[in-house]
Amino acid sequence: MEWFIGFWILVGIFVGWCWYSKEKSSSSDMKMEQKSGVLPKGSFGWPLIGETLDFIAAGYTSQPVSFMEKRRSLYGKVFKTHILGTPIIVSTDPAVNKVVLQNHGNIFIPAYPKSIREIFGEYSILQTNGTLQKKVHALIGGFLRSPQFKSRITKDIEHHVKLTLTSWKDLPLLFVQEETQKFTFRVLVKALLSLDPSDDLDFLKREFNEFIKGLICLPIKLPGTRLYKSLKAKERIFKLVKKIVEQRKLGLEKSEDQEHQNTIPNDAVDVLLRDISGEQNDKQSLSLDFIISHIIELMIPGEETVPMSMTLAVKFLSDCPVALELLTVYIYTRIFICIQSSTLYINHHKIEFASF
């Protein structure tokens, strides 16, 4: 009986707190409007959670933009709402968006939901700016654009695509996004960590699936919540990646400086670690925790962005046979041209060798 009374006392406290928070939020909104002008129409929803549940639920339907469409029809192209723990203004007006993007970093500065800031942490790419951001961008960008990396990654992609296509022939039903996630993640992790298929790679894939689910969630960090589970998954990922990075760093320290400076970097970890060993006295030198956090975040395209793009490409090409036929002809034409160019190149060198 005591637990029943205690339960209702807690419910009463919670309801009273919600009412107080809503009243406080309303008064602060009025003060904000009086101080800086009138806010757009809209609703901040429930205290604390706002309209987050509606926003997340819409993402699991066949019309994920329904959340925005409904509010645009009610309040106009620009409206206020409260999602992921933050009151925000949403713009679906191209003219307004153009003004915002043109003044990025000047009048407007980047900001991210609390759940994303919590998950990415102190050394996140999102928190990196200025000269340090330019330095990391130059290091990673230069490596990804190098001819040596392009040649190696092309071979890796070809290898994994062949393995994936071979495995598809025995599947009665094919889920394109899930299947593309498998090999894009393997290719990306190989480029970042040089990690081949193994128990560590399987562990990394499982934990990364758990970690990335928390990017869009309520910013409540209690045991059992989505954010809490994602943070725990990131801790396990961080521990594994840290072990790999520390082993690689030890290997670089044992090798001679001149030897490893003249060799081509194997992956992104190699690039960033060479910056540490080459610039010990540089104030902008990268810390191990910084490198590990960036490597983890660079895995996100292999889990979400690229597989989603490939899935949509398959869908739209399947829906448009004409486009599929034109693309197929184009690919075969390019392959034929490449083969012809290679043949002419080889014959040219044979002639030069013979004349020599």
From TrEMBL:
Nucleotide-binding among keywords: no
Residues spanning the membrane: 6-22
Top-rank taxon: Eukaryota
Keywords: Iron, Membrane, Metal-binding, Transmembrane, Transmembrane helix
GO molecular function terms listed in the Swiss-Prot or TrEMBL record: heme binding; iron ion binding; oxidoreductase activity, acting on paired donors, with incorporation or reduction of molecular oxygen, NAD(P)H as one donor, and incorporation of one atom of oxygen
Pfam families, A to Z: p450 (PF00067)
Family: Belongs to the cytochrome P450 family.
The name this protein goes by in its record: Cytochrome P450
Species of origin: Populus deltoides
